[in-house]
Protein backbone atom coordinates (compact mmCIF):
# COMPACT_ATOMS: atom_id res chain seq x y z
CA UNK A 1 0.00 0.00 0.00
CA UNK A 2 1.36 3.41 -0.90
CA UNK A 3 1.99 5.97 1.87
CA UNK A 4 -0.90 8.31 0.99
CA UNK A 5 -3.32 5.34 0.82
CA UNK A 6 -2.11 4.11 4.19
CA UNK A 7 -2.60 7.59 5.57
CA UNK A 8 -6.10 7.84 4.08
CA UNK A 9 -7.12 4.50 5.59
CA UNK A 10 -5.72 5.44 8.98
CA UNK A 11 -7.61 8.72 8.83
CA UNK A 12 -10.87 7.00 7.79
CA UNK A 13 -10.48 4.62 10.74
CA UNK A 14 -9.92 7.44 13.22
CA UNK A 15 -12.90 9.41 11.96
CA UNK A 16 -15.40 6.54 11.86
CA UNK A 17 -17.66 7.33 14.81
CA UNK A 18 -18.98 3.77 15.03
CA UNK A 19 -15.43 2.38 15.35
CA UNK A 20 -14.91 4.91 18.13
CA UNK A 21 -18.08 3.77 19.93
CA UNK A 22 -16.98 0.15 19.71
CA UNK A 23 -13.55 1.03 21.12
CA UNK A 24 -15.19 2.97 23.92
CA UNK A 25 -17.45 -0.03 24.69
CA UNK A 26 -14.42 -2.32 24.93
CA UNK A 27 -12.60 0.04 27.30
CA UNK A 28 -15.67 0.44 29.46
CA UNK A 29 -16.39 -3.32 29.51
CA UNK A 30 -12.84 -3.92 30.76
CA UNK A 31 -13.17 -1.28 33.46
CA UNK A 32 -16.51 -2.67 34.61
CA UNK A 33 -15.34 -6.27 34.14
CA UNK A 34 -18.48 -6.96 32.10
CA UNK A 35 -19.13 -10.45 30.74
CA UNK A 36 -17.99 -10.71 27.11
CA UNK A 37 -21.51 -11.52 25.85
CA UNK A 38 -22.93 -8.31 27.36
CA UNK A 39 -20.18 -6.31 25.67
CA UNK A 40 -20.88 -8.03 22.36
CA UNK A 41 -24.60 -7.18 22.58
CA UNK A 42 -24.08 -3.48 23.33
CA UNK A 43 -21.43 -3.14 20.62
CA UNK A 44 -23.99 -4.07 17.97
CA UNK A 45 -27.28 -2.25 17.27
CA UNK A 46 -30.31 -4.50 17.77
CA UNK A 47 -32.08 -3.39 14.57
CA UNK A 48 -31.12 -1.44 11.45
CA UNK A 49 -33.61 -0.24 8.88
CA UNK A 50 -32.47 1.06 5.47
CA UNK A 51 -35.04 2.46 3.09
CA UNK A 52 -35.32 4.14 -0.29
CA UNK A 53 -37.77 7.03 -0.35
CA UNK A 54 -39.10 8.16 -3.74
CA UNK A 55 -40.07 11.83 -3.60
CA UNK A 56 -41.72 13.88 -6.35
CA UNK A 57 -39.60 17.00 -6.68
CA UNK A 58 -40.92 20.40 -7.76
CA UNK A 59 -39.64 19.84 -11.32
CA UNK A 60 -42.03 16.89 -11.65
CA UNK A 61 -39.35 14.19 -11.55
CA UNK A 62 -38.97 11.54 -8.86
CA UNK A 63 -35.80 11.55 -6.79
CA UNK A 64 -35.00 8.57 -4.57
CA UNK A 65 -33.47 9.37 -1.17
CA UNK A 66 -31.72 6.90 1.12
CA UNK A 67 -32.92 6.79 4.74
CA UNK A 68 -31.87 4.93 7.88
CA UNK A 69 -33.24 4.18 11.33
CA UNK A 70 -30.99 2.32 13.77
CA UNK A 71 -32.41 1.04 17.07
CA UNK A 72 -29.49 0.29 19.32
CA UNK A 73 -30.75 -1.23 22.58
CA UNK A 74 -34.18 -1.36 24.22
CA UNK A 75 -33.34 -2.96 27.56
CA UNK A 76 -34.44 0.14 29.48
CA UNK A 77 -37.55 0.88 27.41
CA UNK A 78 -38.70 1.96 23.93
CA UNK A 79 -35.88 3.40 21.85
CA UNK A 80 -35.54 7.15 21.39
CA UNK A 81 -33.45 9.48 19.27
CA UNK A 82 -33.42 12.16 16.61
CA UNK A 83 -33.58 12.12 12.82
CA UNK A 84 -30.91 13.99 10.85
CA UNK A 85 -31.28 15.34 7.34
CA UNK A 86 -27.72 15.71 6.08
CA UNK A 87 -25.94 15.28 2.72
CA UNK A 88 -22.99 13.41 4.31
CA UNK A 89 -25.09 10.99 6.37
CA UNK A 90 -23.75 7.42 6.66
CA UNK A 91 -25.08 4.29 8.30
CA UNK A 92 -22.00 4.18 10.56
CA UNK A 93 -22.62 7.68 11.89
CA UNK A 94 -26.23 6.72 12.62
CA UNK A 95 -25.10 3.52 14.36
CA UNK A 96 -22.74 5.50 16.58
CA UNK A 97 -25.36 8.13 17.34
CA UNK A 98 -27.93 5.43 18.18
CA UNK A 99 -25.53 3.90 20.72
CA UNK A 100 -24.83 7.34 22.20
CA UNK A 101 -28.58 7.75 22.67
CA UNK A 102 -28.65 4.52 24.69
CA UNK A 103 -25.92 5.84 26.99
CA UNK A 104 -27.61 9.25 27.18
CA UNK A 105 -30.99 7.86 28.25
CA UNK A 106 -29.36 5.48 30.75
CA UNK A 107 -27.22 8.24 32.24
CA UNK A 108 -30.23 10.51 32.74
CA UNK A 109 -32.21 7.60 34.19
CA UNK A 110 -34.89 7.84 31.51
CA UNK A 111 -36.95 4.67 30.90
CA UNK A 112 -35.79 4.63 27.28
CA UNK A 113 -33.28 2.96 24.98
CA UNK A 114 -31.31 4.52 22.12
CA UNK A 115 -31.99 4.99 18.40
CA UNK A 116 -31.14 7.42 15.61
CA UNK A 117 -32.36 8.08 12.11
CA UNK A 118 -31.07 9.91 9.09
CA UNK A 119 -31.83 10.73 5.49
CA UNK A 120 -29.12 11.60 2.97
CA UNK A 121 -30.35 14.91 1.56
CA UNK A 122 -29.51 18.58 1.51
CA UNK A 123 -32.45 20.41 3.09
CA UNK A 124 -30.90 23.78 2.15
CA UNK A 125 -31.49 22.95 -1.51
CA UNK A 126 -35.06 21.69 -1.06
CA UNK A 127 -38.35 23.58 -1.13
CA UNK A 128 -40.79 23.33 1.76
CA UNK A 129 -43.07 21.08 -0.30
CA UNK A 130 -40.20 18.72 -1.16
CA UNK A 131 -39.19 18.55 2.51
CA UNK A 132 -42.75 17.73 3.54
CA UNK A 133 -43.02 14.96 0.94
CA UNK A 134 -39.63 13.56 2.04
CA UNK A 135 -40.64 13.65 5.73
CA UNK A 136 -43.93 11.87 5.04
CA UNK A 137 -42.20 9.41 2.67
CA UNK A 138 -39.67 8.50 5.36
CA UNK A 139 -42.49 7.72 7.82
CA UNK A 140 -44.33 5.65 5.17
CA UNK A 141 -41.27 3.42 4.98
CA UNK A 142 -40.54 2.95 8.70
CA UNK A 143 -43.89 3.43 10.47
CA UNK A 144 -44.45 -0.23 11.35
CA UNK A 145 -41.20 -0.26 13.31
CA UNK A 146 -41.73 2.96 15.29
CA UNK A 147 -44.47 4.01 17.73
CA UNK A 148 -45.09 5.54 21.17
CA UNK A 149 -44.19 2.27 22.93
CA UNK A 150 -41.57 1.10 20.44
CA UNK A 151 -39.32 3.82 19.02
CA UNK A 152 -39.92 7.57 19.29
CA UNK A 153 -38.00 9.89 16.90
CA UNK A 154 -37.22 13.58 17.49
CA UNK A 155 -35.40 16.49 15.80
CA UNK A 156 -31.66 16.51 15.20
CA UNK A 157 -29.30 18.15 12.71
CA UNK A 158 -31.35 20.08 10.07
CA UNK A 159 -34.73 18.77 11.23
CA UNK A 160 -37.17 20.94 13.18
CA UNK A 161 -40.60 21.09 14.88
CA UNK A 162 -42.43 21.52 11.54
CA UNK A 163 -40.83 18.33 10.21
CA UNK A 164 -41.85 16.56 13.45
CA UNK A 165 -45.45 17.76 12.95
CA UNK A 166 -45.56 16.34 9.39
CA UNK A 167 -44.09 13.04 10.57
CA UNK A 168 -46.53 12.76 13.49
CA UNK A 169 -49.41 13.55 11.15
CA UNK A 170 -48.32 10.93 8.62
CA UNK A 171 -47.90 8.28 11.32
CA UNK A 172 -51.34 9.16 12.76
CA UNK A 173 -52.93 8.79 9.31
CA UNK A 174 -51.33 5.38 8.84
CA UNK A 175 -52.28 4.27 12.37
CA UNK A 176 -55.84 5.54 11.89
CA UNK A 177 -55.86 7.69 15.05
CA UNK A 178 -54.06 10.67 16.55
CA UNK A 179 -50.73 9.52 17.93
CA UNK A 180 -49.01 12.60 19.33
CA UNK A 181 -46.66 10.43 21.39
CA UNK A 182 -44.96 8.86 18.35
CA UNK A 183 -42.51 11.72 18.01
CA UNK A 184 -41.18 14.54 20.19
CA UNK A 185 -39.90 18.03 19.50
CA UNK A 186 -43.31 18.88 18.02
CA UNK A 187 -44.80 22.38 17.89
CA UNK A 188 -46.84 23.23 21.01
CA UNK A 189 -50.26 22.97 19.28
CA UNK A 190 -49.70 19.33 18.36
CA UNK A 191 -48.50 18.05 21.72
CA UNK A 192 -45.09 19.70 21.99
CA UNK A 193 -43.59 20.57 25.36
CA UNK A 194 -42.75 24.06 26.54
CA UNK A 195 -38.96 24.36 26.64
CA UNK A 196 -38.16 21.53 24.18
CA UNK A 197 -36.75 23.85 21.52
CA UNK A 198 -34.05 25.25 23.82
CA UNK A 199 -33.68 22.16 26.00
CA UNK A 200 -30.33 20.95 24.64
CA UNK A 201 -28.68 24.29 25.35
CA UNK A 202 -30.42 24.83 28.68
CA UNK A 203 -29.52 21.31 29.84
CA UNK A 204 -25.90 21.94 28.75
CA UNK A 205 -25.85 25.17 30.70
CA UNK A 206 -27.07 23.41 33.87
CA UNK A 207 -24.19 20.93 33.49
CA UNK A 208 -21.71 23.77 32.87
CA UNK A 209 -23.04 25.48 36.02
CA UNK A 210 -22.27 22.39 38.13
CA UNK A 211 -18.86 21.92 36.51
CA UNK A 212 -17.96 25.58 37.04
CA UNK A 213 -18.89 25.26 40.70
CA UNK A 214 -16.64 22.18 41.02
CA UNK A 215 -13.80 24.05 39.29
CA UNK A 216 -14.32 27.22 41.35
CA UNK A 217 -15.06 29.20 38.18
CA UNK A 218 -17.37 32.21 38.35
CA UNK A 219 -19.64 32.05 35.30
CA UNK A 220 -20.30 35.79 35.54
CA UNK A 221 -16.72 36.46 34.42
CA UNK A 222 -16.31 33.43 32.19
CA UNK A 223 -15.60 33.67 28.46
CA UNK A 224 -17.07 31.20 25.96
CA UNK A 225 -16.13 30.16 22.42
CA UNK A 226 -18.89 28.29 20.62
CA UNK A 227 -18.31 26.26 17.47
CA UNK A 228 -21.57 26.07 15.50
CA UNK A 229 -24.42 28.57 15.69
CA UNK A 230 -27.45 26.38 15.09
CA UNK A 231 -30.18 25.66 17.64
CA UNK A 232 -27.82 24.34 20.36
CA UNK A 233 -24.95 26.81 19.84
CA UNK A 234 -27.09 29.91 19.55
CA UNK A 235 -29.32 29.10 22.52
CA UNK A 236 -26.32 28.28 24.69
CA UNK A 237 -24.76 31.64 23.82
CA UNK A 238 -28.01 33.43 24.51
CA UNK A 239 -28.79 31.67 27.82
CA UNK A 240 -25.22 31.85 29.19
CA UNK A 241 -25.17 35.57 28.48
CA UNK A 242 -28.73 36.17 29.69
CA UNK A 243 -28.70 34.06 32.87
CA UNK A 244 -25.08 34.46 34.03
CA UNK A 245 -23.81 37.42 32.05
CA UNK A 246 -21.00 35.24 30.64
CA UNK A 247 -19.00 36.74 27.77
CA UNK A 248 -19.46 35.15 24.37
CA UNK A 249 -16.20 35.99 22.60
CA UNK A 250 -16.26 33.69 19.56
CA UNK A 251 -18.77 31.74 17.50
CA UNK A 252 -18.61 30.05 14.12
CA UNK A 253 -20.70 28.45 11.41
CA UNK A 254 -19.93 26.47 8.26
CA UNK A 255 -18.20 29.50 6.66
CA UNK A 256 -15.82 30.33 9.53
CA UNK A 257 -15.68 32.13 12.86
CA UNK A 258 -15.87 35.58 14.42
CA UNK A 259 -14.11 36.93 17.51
CA UNK A 260 -14.40 39.93 19.81
CA UNK A 261 -12.36 39.99 23.02
CA UNK A 262 -14.90 42.17 24.89
CA UNK A 263 -17.72 39.78 24.02
CA UNK A 264 -20.77 40.37 21.84
CA UNK A 265 -24.55 40.25 21.95
CA UNK A 266 -25.60 36.73 20.85
CA UNK A 267 -28.93 38.00 19.51
CA UNK A 268 -27.22 40.55 17.28
CA UNK A 269 -25.05 37.78 15.82
CA UNK A 270 -28.12 35.61 15.33
CA UNK A 271 -29.97 38.37 13.48
CA UNK A 272 -26.89 38.99 11.32
CA UNK A 273 -26.80 35.30 10.46
CA UNK A 274 -30.49 35.25 9.52
CA UNK A 275 -30.06 38.33 7.32
CA UNK A 276 -26.75 37.34 5.68
CA UNK A 277 -26.65 33.54 5.84
CA UNK A 278 -23.57 33.52 8.11
CA UNK A 279 -22.17 34.98 11.32
CA UNK A 280 -19.19 36.24 9.29
CA UNK A 281 -19.03 39.99 8.80
CA UNK A 282 -21.04 40.94 11.88
CA UNK A 283 -19.99 44.53 12.73
CA UNK A 284 -17.52 44.89 15.61
CA UNK A 285 -16.10 41.38 15.18
CA UNK A 286 -12.91 40.07 13.65
CA UNK A 287 -12.98 37.06 11.33
CA UNK A 288 -11.14 33.93 12.50
CA UNK A 289 -10.71 30.47 10.99
CA UNK A 290 -12.41 27.28 12.20
CA UNK A 291 -9.17 26.05 13.70
CA UNK A 292 -8.38 29.35 15.47
CA UNK A 293 -11.64 29.15 17.42
CA UNK A 294 -10.58 25.91 19.12
CA UNK A 295 -7.33 27.30 20.48
CA UNK A 296 -8.55 30.68 21.77
CA UNK A 297 -7.70 31.71 25.30
CA UNK A 298 -11.20 31.22 26.78
CA UNK A 299 -12.60 29.58 29.89
CA UNK A 300 -15.16 27.37 28.18
CA UNK A 301 -15.09 25.85 24.70
CA UNK A 302 -18.37 24.47 23.33
CA UNK A 303 -18.26 22.32 20.19
CA UNK A 304 -21.89 22.52 19.07
CA UNK A 305 -21.92 21.19 15.52
CA UNK A 306 -20.79 17.83 14.12
CA UNK A 307 -18.47 14.93 15.01
CA UNK A 308 -14.68 14.63 15.26
CA UNK A 309 -13.60 18.27 15.41
CA UNK A 310 -11.31 18.01 18.45
CA UNK A 311 -8.51 15.70 17.38
CA UNK A 312 -4.93 14.92 18.37
CA UNK A 313 -3.91 17.76 16.03
CA UNK A 314 -5.65 20.61 17.85
CA UNK A 315 -6.11 19.14 21.38
CA UNK A 316 -2.53 20.01 22.52
CA UNK A 317 -3.22 23.70 21.80
CA UNK A 318 -6.59 24.04 23.54
CA UNK A 319 -6.48 26.57 26.38
CA UNK A 320 -10.03 26.36 27.77
CA UNK A 321 -10.40 24.78 31.20
CA UNK A 322 -13.85 23.29 30.48
CA UNK A 323 -14.99 21.73 27.20
CA UNK A 324 -18.77 21.41 27.03
CA UNK A 325 -19.74 19.02 24.24
CA UNK A 326 -23.11 20.16 22.98
CA UNK A 327 -22.51 18.27 19.71
CA UNK A 328 -22.54 14.49 19.53
CA UNK A 329 -19.08 12.93 19.24
CA UNK A 330 -16.94 16.06 18.75
CA UNK A 331 -13.80 14.62 20.40
CA UNK A 332 -11.73 11.64 19.19
CA UNK A 333 -10.36 9.14 21.77
CA UNK A 334 -6.78 10.30 21.05
CA UNK A 335 -7.77 13.88 21.80
CA UNK A 336 -9.55 12.75 24.98
CA UNK A 337 -6.30 11.36 26.40
CA UNK A 338 -4.47 14.60 25.59
CA UNK A 339 -7.16 16.75 27.22
CA UNK A 340 -7.20 14.55 30.34
CA UNK A 341 -3.41 14.88 30.69
CA UNK A 342 -3.75 18.65 30.34
CA UNK A 343 -6.28 18.67 33.21
CA UNK A 344 -9.10 20.04 31.05
CA UNK A 345 -12.55 19.06 32.31
CA UNK A 346 -14.47 17.57 29.37
CA UNK A 347 -18.22 17.43 29.83
CA UNK A 348 -18.96 14.50 27.52
CA UNK A 349 -21.63 14.75 24.85
CA UNK A 350 -24.06 12.26 26.23
CA UNK A 351 -24.09 14.11 29.53
CA UNK A 352 -23.80 17.68 28.27
CA UNK A 353 -26.37 17.53 25.45
CA UNK A 354 -28.84 15.20 27.16
CA UNK A 355 -31.23 18.09 27.91
CA UNK A 356 -32.86 17.56 24.51
CA UNK A 357 -33.88 13.97 25.08
CA UNK A 358 -34.76 14.68 28.71
CA UNK A 359 -37.37 17.28 27.72
CA UNK A 360 -38.43 14.92 24.91
CA UNK A 361 -39.15 12.37 27.62
CA UNK A 362 -41.13 15.03 29.51
CA UNK A 363 -43.03 15.65 26.26
CA UNK A 364 -43.89 11.94 26.01
CA UNK A 365 -45.12 11.93 29.62
CA UNK A 366 -47.30 14.98 28.87
CA UNK A 367 -48.66 13.30 25.72
CA UNK A 368 -49.53 10.12 27.63
CA UNK A 369 -51.18 11.92 30.55
CA UNK A 370 -52.65 14.76 28.43
CA UNK A 371 -51.66 17.12 31.20
CA UNK A 372 -49.33 19.90 30.02
CA UNK A 373 -46.73 21.51 32.28
CA UNK A 374 -45.72 25.16 32.59
CA UNK A 375 -42.22 26.50 31.92
CA UNK A 376 -41.19 26.53 35.58
CA UNK A 377 -42.04 22.85 36.00
CA UNK A 378 -40.13 21.81 32.86
CA UNK A 379 -37.02 23.82 33.76
CA UNK A 380 -37.00 22.73 37.39
CA UNK A 381 -37.29 19.04 36.49
CA UNK A 382 -34.63 19.44 33.80
CA UNK A 383 -32.20 21.13 36.16
CA UNK A 384 -32.62 18.41 38.75
CA UNK A 385 -31.96 15.66 36.21
CA UNK A 386 -28.92 17.36 34.62
CA UNK A 387 -27.30 18.21 37.96
CA UNK A 388 -27.82 14.72 39.30
CA UNK A 389 -26.34 13.15 36.12
CA UNK A 390 -23.33 15.49 36.33
CA UNK A 391 -22.63 14.51 39.94
CA UNK A 392 -22.95 10.78 39.29
CA UNK A 393 -20.40 11.12 36.45
CA UNK A 394 -18.07 13.37 38.45
CA UNK A 395 -18.18 11.03 41.47
CA UNK A 396 -17.46 8.01 39.25
CA UNK A 397 -14.52 9.84 37.64
CA UNK A 398 -13.06 10.62 41.08
CA UNK A 399 -13.70 7.13 42.42
CA UNK A 400 -12.23 5.24 39.45
CA UNK A 401 -9.61 7.87 38.53
CA UNK A 402 -10.81 8.01 34.92
CA UNK A 403 -11.77 10.89 32.66
CA UNK A 404 -15.35 12.20 32.61
CA UNK A 405 -16.23 10.37 29.40
CA UNK A 406 -15.03 7.02 30.71
CA UNK A 407 -16.89 7.73 33.94
CA UNK A 408 -20.08 8.56 32.03
CA UNK A 409 -19.69 5.32 30.07
CA UNK A 410 -19.22 3.36 33.28
CA UNK A 411 -22.38 4.77 34.88
CA UNK A 412 -24.54 4.44 31.74
CA UNK A 413 -23.33 1.09 30.47
CA UNK A 414 -23.54 -0.45 33.94
CA UNK A 415 -27.22 0.53 34.15
CA UNK A 416 -27.92 -1.05 30.76
CA UNK A 417 -25.84 -4.16 31.52
CA UNK A 418 -27.53 -4.68 34.91
CA UNK A 419 -30.95 -4.35 33.27
CA UNK A 420 -30.03 -6.80 30.53
CA UNK A 421 -28.94 -9.31 33.17
CA UNK A 422 -32.17 -8.75 35.14
CA UNK A 423 -34.15 -9.39 31.97
CA UNK A 424 -32.16 -12.59 31.36
CA UNK A 425 -30.57 -11.47 28.10
CA UNK A 426 -27.12 -12.72 29.04
N1 LIG B 1 -31.48 14.60 18.75
C1 LIG B 1 -31.35 14.85 20.15
C2 LIG B 1 -30.19 14.09 20.74
O1 LIG B 1 -29.26 13.74 20.06
C3 LIG B 1 -32.64 14.60 20.88
C4 LIG B 1 -33.19 13.23 20.81
C5 LIG B 1 -34.59 13.13 21.37
O2 LIG B 1 -35.11 14.12 21.81
O3 LIG B 1 -35.12 12.02 21.33
O4 LIG B 1 -30.11 13.91 21.92
Q: What are the SSEs and their pairings?
A:
Blueprint: H1 3-14, H2 17-32, H3 36-43, E1 47-56, E2 62-73, E3 79-85, H4 91-107, E4 113-119, H5 128-142, E5 151-155, H6 161-175, H7 199-215, E6 223-227, H8 231-244, E7 247-253, E8 256-259, H9 266-276, E9 286-288, H10 290-294, E10 300-303, E11 322-324, H11 333-341, E12 345-347, H12 349-352, H13 355-369, H14 375-400, H15 404-422
Parallel strand pairs: 3-4, 3-5, 6-7, 6-10, 10-11, 11-12
Antiparallel strand pairs: 1-2, 2-4, 7-8, 8-9
Helix pairs in contact: 2-3, 2-4, 2-15, 4-15, 5-6, 7-8, 7-13, 7-14, 13-14, 14-15
The site of glutamic acid (GLU) has 13 residues, from strand 3 and helix 13.
Q: Approximately how much helix is present in the residues?
A: 40-55%
Q: Which secondary-structure class do the elements indicate?
A: alpha/beta
Q: Give the CATH topology of one domain.
A: Rossmann fold
Output the CATH class name of one domain: Alpha Beta
Q: Roughly how many Å apart are the termini?
A: 42 Å
- DSSP summary, beta strand count: 12
Biggest sheet: strands, sense, closure? 7 strands, mixed
Hetero ligands: glutamic acid
CATH architecture type of one domain: 3-Layer(aba) Sandwich
**CATH H level, superfamily name of one domain:** NAD(P)-binding Rossmann-like Domain
